[in-house]
Specification:
The complex is a heterodimer of chains A (360) and B (384). Chain A is mainly α and 360 residues long. Chain A has helices at residues 9-17, 20-57, 73-83, 94-99, 102-113, 129-150, 154-185, 190-195, 205-208, 212-227, 239-242, 252-277, 289-297, 300-319, 327-354. The chains are: A mainly alpha (360), B alpha+beta (384).
Chain lengths: 360, 384
Amino acid sequence: MKAYAVNHPIGDIVRSLLPAPWAAIANGALAVAVIAGLVTVSAIFLIWLERKVCAHFQARLGPTRVGPFGLLQPIADAIKLLMKENLRPRGVDNLAYFMAPLLPITGSFLVLAVMPFDHNLQVVDLQAGVVYVVAVSGLGILGILIGGWGSNNKYSLLGSMRSGAQLFSYELSMVLCLLLIVMASGSASLREIVLSQQGTVADWWIFKLPVAGFLAFFLFMISSTAELNRGPLDLSEAESELTGGFHTEYTGISFSMFFLAEFVNMFASAGLGATFFLGGFLAPQFGIGPVDYALAAVPGVIWFFLKTYFLIFLYMWFRWTFPRLRIDHLLSLEWKFLLPVSMANLLLAATLVTFKLIIP
Amino acid sequence: MATEQGYALPPGFSLRETRADGSQEYFLNMGPQHPSTHGVLKLVVRLDGETVIEVVPHLGFIHRAIEKMGENETFVQYIHLTDRMDYLSSHINNLCVCLAIEKAMGIGVPERGEYIRVMVSELQRIQSHLLWWGAFGMDLGAVSAFLYGFKEREKITALFEELCGARLTMNFFRPGGSNADVPENFLARVKEILEELKFSLDEFEVLLTKNPIIRERTLGVGALSRERAINYGCSGPVGRASGIDFDVRKHDPYSVYDRFQFDVPLGKNGDCYDRYMVRMQEMRESIRILAQAMAGFPEGQYRSKEKASYKVPAGSYYANVETARGLYATYMVSDNSFKPYRIKSRSPNFSNLSAINEMSRGGKIADLVAILSTLDLIIPDIDR
């Protein structure tokens, strides 16, 4: 396995300038600033992208007026949302109502902390990175549940109860899919998982594990769509049934926090998909000398974003094509189909790994 | 339930006692401002969790006393008021009033006028069904379908705009024909629209009809038996989906509908899927009628000689038509004057809506939305 530098040059410069404890603090602050910037910029870009993609799926043009290609439209939207009065409806639970919007965004923020963007571009590389990712992404569910409960609105309550049932169930098959990759790569660190996919495109986990890899990717995409509360599995929002679902009562900045979290979550989830199945920041290699050389010359962070945005496009494609499932169909899909299939898939992968049919 | 939290039940409503497991039924107001009621309809839904126990529609939010207003307008002036009832079938509503006046005064319609009436009515039916198709997709969460439906509908709406200057409230038909002849390129444009429509309908079938999620959500949902449908007075696609073989165009032909070959699509189970399929097939049947009408479109006058005044002789007159939603009828009583003594409209939506409680009982909230969508309600037509 090729060795890569773990530290980013900027971190090394900070370390050489400051004494150790101060350097750690300064580097931490830098990392937070970078992730915060990434969250904001990618959310704004994703909102624009979603509007454009959806518009073109629907034979429209989407935003064109504000800025070139309507690129500044999300900023105009954000200003509008921030200027709005943050209403507090009668009878809400103050703490729950105002705390809930902060939780989902925190969750996705924390997931990005372990995301390997490039060889040496990662805030922290945890040994149990996968466990951490699964744990902190649960914060989003909590936010939706608390927000729906605290809003004192029956539509919100219905939406949050739906999402409770939905997200907890779909978490299972998603975790099983991630577990499969952990088992195959022999590590729970996200960086190690990426590095275990070195080689050609055929060494990415989606292709390297015969059948099981692709099936796991497929199941991951379905269950993460449910986790993201995006159509066709956006039951907790379900605007045609529950008007707005869990965020019916939210306006202004509180609503925009939920909105932002939805897009950052999508980015984080697609990033996980790219990391686990599509070789993360590794450049695709085809075993053809000059082509490989050219592809490898492109920085890893660009490959990471390309793969992530490809998966994001898939999420958008789902959303603007399929109609919404009903809650009981959704749950039977998970418990009667996805969960048994992902368990069988796990068994299959375990067999492959045990009998050394793949090289971890 | 504490009133200070805004939970007070409206007078006359009561909930059952809390059950042994601590759960309780509750009321949910769907509407008058709700995305899937498509207008100002209010449904008070009694729920047990997500399961619907009872649905009580509350009407009258958009009551404008159109029938009473009609008593203060002349007979011809009343035509435009019917635009405001079922605004997606406004041409067909107008036609019904014209038919009643023609019956009363013995006015004939020239051949070309009749063909214009049939063609415009069928185009209106397709246009209405296209909007329904889009809205159905949106109600079930396929938002893109809404735009696809509207894209096709827009072509017909543009044609109507050229025809009569209006896109929604047409006011085009007059006793004895219509208020203007069709534009020169009318036939060519209809032909072009139909060619494109056939292609789009095939696409629509792929997008929604064959979609497994749509099938799961509509098959067996909101079933209405034939007997109950008759009892509720359901007509149009809702009635035909339940197996009632009744179409005014076929069984009490008006205008020149008896000259055209077309089938009346029927459903078996009366569920959402049947209602969906009946409408999809009706669009193809309308295309058939239009093709025949185009082939035999005659030259000549579009309207018989206009009368100096439309003074309807004393008596009562009745005419019925098949709108995109079912049986629409006008019953007018005249006391030998220029204004009707009394006008009564029979609108299909009111009767169709009345079946909603029976259809949605025991289903989920999502089923209620699917049922509302396949009933294809136009609220101003219910309240009038």
